[in-house]
Design a protein that fits this description.
With 171 residues, the chain is of the alpha/beta class. Helix content is 34%, strand content 23%. The chain has helices spanning 3-11, 20-36, 53-60, 73-82, 117-126, 153-156, and strands spanning 43-47, 65-70, 87-90, 102-108, 128-139, 166-170. Helix 2 crosses helix 3 (53-60).
Length: 171
């Protein structure tokens, strides 16, 4: 494990399943994805799935072909217990994505933790089926001075100091 990945998976690791606002936000984000991908047969991956809260909500809504990708084994283990029907992969997002032929990739608060967010985003698009979507949320990159935890923020900067909050996009 590289030192950079160790910082992300140990020093700054949190468990969204233990924080109501984070859990609820992940579940709500999954519900917004359902509005875009109503086919319950869709193959969906949650990139940096954490404890599996978004996957849990997708499973509750009838989606069955679910995949989680998480760098921290302890979080992946929690996700496997929370959503036993999902395939959870322990994986560094800087490496080739472990799931192919996806209808959608869901990701919340991920890219800002990647050293090369453009490379990660490019990889996501290579594993999507034609017409597939990426649904992502990232905190506003100009608002967080913690460059150790948010090492990719410099690559995501908008250079607009007047805007605040999270950026949400469907690509």
């Amino acid at each position: 494990m590289t030192q950079d990945l160790k910082v992300q998976t140990e020093t700054y690791m949190s468990h969204e399943s233990e924080v109501g606002a984070w859990r609820d936000a992940n579940r709500a984000s999954a519900e917004r994805l359902v509005a875009l991908i109503p086919n319950q047969q869709a193959k969906i991956a949650d990139s940096a799935c954490g404890d599996g809260c978004a996957l849990e909500r997708l499973a509750e809504l009838g989606y069955a072909d679910l995949h989680g990708v998480e760098a921290a084994e302890v979080k992946a283990t929690i996700a496997r217990k929370l959503v036993p029907s999902a395939q959870i992969h322990t994986h560094d997002l800087h490496d080739p994505f472990p799931v192919k032929d996806l209808d959608a990739i869901h990701s919340r608060h991920t890219l800002e933790h990647c050293h090369t967010p453009g490379k990660v985003l490019q990889e996501w698009f290579t594993v999507l089926k034609p017409g597939g979507i990426v649904s992502l949320t990232t905190p506003h990159p100009d608002g967080d001075p913690n460059t150790e935890a948010h090492c990719g923020s410099g690559h995501l900067r908008t250079r607009n100091p007047t805007t605040q909050g999270a950026v949400e996009a469907v690509l």
